[in-house]
Amino acid sequence: MGDQKRNFSRRDLFRSAGGAVLATTSLAGCDLLSTDPTTNKSNGRPAGKKGLEAPSLAAAVKAGTLPALKDRLPAQPLILKPAQEIGTYGGTWRTFIQGIDGSSVYENIGYDGLVRWAPDFSGVIPNVVSWDVGADGREYTFHLRKGMKWSDGKPFTADDIAFAYVDVLSNDELFPVFPEWLAPGGTPARFAKVDEVTCTFTFAEPHAFFLERLASPEGNILAASPKHYLQRFHKKYNPDVATLVKEAKVAEWIQLYFGKGGDGTSGLAIWQNPELPVLLPWVVVTPLTKDRLVAKRNPYYWKMDPDGSQLPYLDEVVIDIVASPETATLRVSNGDFTLPSTDVLIPANKPIFARNAEQGRYRLIDQMTSDINNGVVCLNLTHKNRAVRELFQNKDFRIGLSYAINRAELIKAVHQRQGEPYQSAPRPESDWYEETLAKQHTKYDVAEANRRLDRAGLTRRDAAGWRLRPDGNRVAFTVELPTGFDPTYPATAELIQTYWKAVGIEMRVQSQGGPLFWERLFANQCDAVLYSAENGLRDAILDPGWFFPVGGRCYYARLWADWYASGGKTGEAPPPAPRRQMQLYDTIKTTADEAERNRLFAEILRISREEFYTIGTVLIAGRYSIVQDNFRNVPEPIPEGSLYPDPAPVGPEQFYVRS
């Protein structure tokens, strides 16, 4: 369960080495929340027209099969202001995922952690809990909602958070590697239960990133571990757990525990176990199988709209499993989905969807992506072959290859004229945007490419015109790309192959199945890979692996990143420049002052500019989503990124179908 494992979803859930600086709740985030519905003004139809609970729940109360609404809600429900208007009860959200993938379900209906991202991705806002932070940034006190309940009606208390932290995350059988985001400086947080609705996390050093990490995918487990249910599958609490292991036909209690949903809402098991209590708007009634998942409204959900009506508005969510991108594209264009997955919403398909919008009764809306670059070549700077490593670490070699790429042609041929030449750098919308970092060496200049390659010591060629290394061997290497992740990768790689051939560099292209791709990458077995760079807005500091060798997103110097992650126990010690970046980042992670963190991160980016670790191609642009015409309260634009599990943070519980 260590940091270097990958979750092979479409979002490729993040593994980072750090956290965030978004510690201040934005005005937009605050405006979404209240604990007093009488102080909120409805911006839609008048209160009372739809009732205070869904008709099906009201009927169950009347029949005596469900407690009254006042007994199901916490003392202070979270008041959610709709994105557009007060909704009405009823309707179905239909979407799809490609393959049986828990994290893709999480991105739709599984995001309700202790805290959450503001819908506009501007900061962190309260959710299950509110908080206080000590003056030195070491102690975080969380205040739960008194009377809040799991979907089975059992109380949600500080004991559930204690169970998740002390008995799960701190259990070295379940998590052999303790999550680094809970141990800044290497010392795990100290947890204390104050009372049923109050608990504290105290760190040995200031933890500048804690709230942002809780709002990101890996933090969800702390609000997804119902002790009263999961303890029966835990060795500490059930002396007869071996019997359950045998009945489940698994090898050990660890498999049993995780198989019941103990790995959080971004895992797969939670969506295959309808018995698992949750804090989510909808609960699974038809488990995730080869065909579909169906989830019905949670009668104990703890949020309401400004009228005082319990959320969610929608009765159910249906998520179809679609076998191929072609089938998904056809069904989206036919209008089969209410708010479809973004898997097939690529530039090449946009004209198709636009032509069919009226017939399909849907509209196209913009997305605000934090992704950076659609097709970055990452040469393996820690290659196991010393001669290849020496060549790849030669900055003139990398710069020469960059000048050889005709990005204007690539954008026209592959990206439907969407985007602009760009390196691995924060996006133009980011506070950390720096033009030189973003644009250096992106001009198409074959003469300069040849000059740089000559300067790298590659002046000799063989009879076929290929450049030779100083040891006499041809400069030849393979760029690997994962299949099924991005349909533009093969065409991008093939064009780059022709550009580099023109300057005497032999590049081979090899597509690998997702698991094999990641296995080879993290085992340091690749010559080079092609992938998309992410985290280019304010999230750049949360997961900065594209700017220096750190975390799971460092695809260009695995051994240096491993050295940093292990405290020098594995991998290889990096040269002075990346080591300096690591030192700066260590300081950032324990610096309470945001201005100082920003200053230090700017220095990290300055060094990244000088080192030029990777070769970028195209700034990602033109992202869009599709929404059925009568599907309301979907904000425009929808933020999107690897740390923002869209669309869930915008609040699907307030989506509704307008008749």
Task: Give keywords.
28% helix; alpha/beta; 659 residues; Dipeptide-binding Protein, domain 3; D-Maltodextrin-Binding Protein, domain 2; single chain; four-stranded antiparallel beta sheet; 2 domains; 21 strands; four-stranded mixed beta sheet; disordered N terminus
What would your notes on this structure say?
The chain is built from 22 helices and 21 strands. The protein is of the alpha/beta class and 659 residues long. It folds into two domains: 27-225 and 262-367 and 624-657, 3-Layer(aba) Sandwich (D-Maltodextrin-Binding Protein, domain 2), CATH 3.40.190.10; 373-611, Dipeptide-binding Protein, domain 3 (Roll), CATH 3.10.105. The strands form seven sheets. Strands 2-12-10-9 form a four-stranded mixed sheet, with helices on one face. It has a four-stranded antiparallel sheet with strand order 5-6-8-7, with helices on one face. A four-stranded mixed sheet has the order 14-17-15-16. The chain is globular. The two termini are 47 Å apart.
- Shape label: globular
Strand content: 15-25%
Q: Please count the helical segments.
A: 22
Low confidence ranges: 1-48
Largest sheet: 4 strands, mixed
Structure at a glance:
It comes from Actinopolymorpha pittospori. This protein is of the alpha/beta class and 659 residues long. Helix content is 28%, strand content 15%.
Could you give the topology of this structure?
Elements: H1 27-31, H2 55-63, H3 69-72, E1 78-79, E2 92-97, H4 102-109, E3 115-117, E4 124-126, E5 130-133, E6 139-143, H5 158-169, E7 190-195, E8 198-202, H6 210-215, H7 227-230, H8 241-248, H9 253-259, E9 282-286, E10 292-297, E11 303-304, E12 316-321, H10 325-333, H11 350-355, H12 357-360, E13 362-369, E14 373-379, H13 386-392, H14 395-403, H15 407-414, H16 435-439, H17 446-455, E15 476-482, H18 489-501, E16 506-512, H19 514-522, E17 528-533, H20 558-565, H21 576-589, H22 594-611, E18 624-628, E19 631-632, E20 638-640, E21 656-657
Parallel strand pairs: 1-11, 2-12, 13-20, 15-16, 15-17
Antiparallel strand pairs: 3-4, 5-6, 6-8, 7-8, 9-10, 10-12, 13-18, 14-17, 19-21
